[in-house]
Amino acid sequence: MQKPAQTLTAHRNEEQVSRRSFLARTGVTAGGVLLETSLAASHALAEQKSDQAIIGPDAVPLTLRINGAVRTVTVPPHTTLAEALRGPLDLTGTKIGCDRGACSACTVWLDGIPIASCMLLAIDVAERSVTTIEGLGDGDKLHPVQAAFIEHDAVQCGFCTPGMVMSCAALLAHNPNPSLDDVKAATSGHLCRCGTYSHVFAATLAAAKANKG
Questions:
Q1: Per residue in 175-202, pLDDT tens?
Q2: 104 near 167, Cβ under 8 Å?
Q3: What class is the 137-213 domain?
Q4: What is the fold, at CATH topology level, of the domain defined by 58-135?
């Protein structure tokens, strides 16, 4: 005959085994459900991707809208917009500085919005409109920001200038009466190794004033 203490210990052991068994069975069941759900999602994604066309690794033809004209180029899928502009499209006004979106020398407009063209694949441009420094003016007539940059000596080595001009012109297009702080914010991502920032600010404010006149 078991003593009360022995009976209590046996009961506790029996209870612990029961809990362990329950948790083990519950964990296996939950894990099985998660695994099945994950596999189902993976299969669905695989089926979805199988319906999409595979592009590359060979060069592919692209049709781009650049400065109001339709241009066709054939480039490898990994080609950035900056590389396509400077290479097969021969629009070398767009500069490549850091090639990682840190200096903004390669700034162009995508549907009127300034972007770093070194950070966008040409293949991802699709039907959107691209404007480069070459397409900013009206024929031989300079854009007011371009003219102001010359008048206010905002150009030294010139490497950052096209990107600066594109951002400042975009600012005036969206805000015709900017403050100095607005201009500083618009050019805050641009690296000018020559330090012509004060001239850039003055030129942009002067262009805004000339547009109002």
A1: 999 999 999 999 999 999 999 999 999 9
A2: yes
A3: mainly alpha
A4: Ubiquitin-like (UB roll) (3.10.20)
